[in-house]
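Appendix B, example 12.
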Amino acid sequence: MRNRKFSKGKKFIFFLPVVALIAAALGFIVMYLWNWILPEVTHCGQLNFWQAIGLLVLCRLLFGNFNKGGGGPGNRFREKAWTLRSKWDGMNEEQRAKFKEEYKRRCGGWGHRNKE
């Protein structure tokens, strides 16, 4: 029995329709959900297929790629939290108090408005 392997050209020919099919499916899903929910809730216009594809591309550009759940070594949020934690651990009490005051001044705490 002969071991059949795909050449790179055959892999590309197989890969291209799969990518197109996935993009089309995602476009139709976004279009369907948008047209089902948002016009009724927010009174916005309906989306056509190409606008849905454009919305997917825009989300990809703004929010990054569609990662599989859980994140890995490249998870930016985890790295950022780790960096903030290491900075916090490196602060003395005076620097921590200054940081907290600056946070309260800028953010006012969660769910509270500044009363200035």
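The radius of gyration is 24 Å. The longest helix spans residues 8-42.
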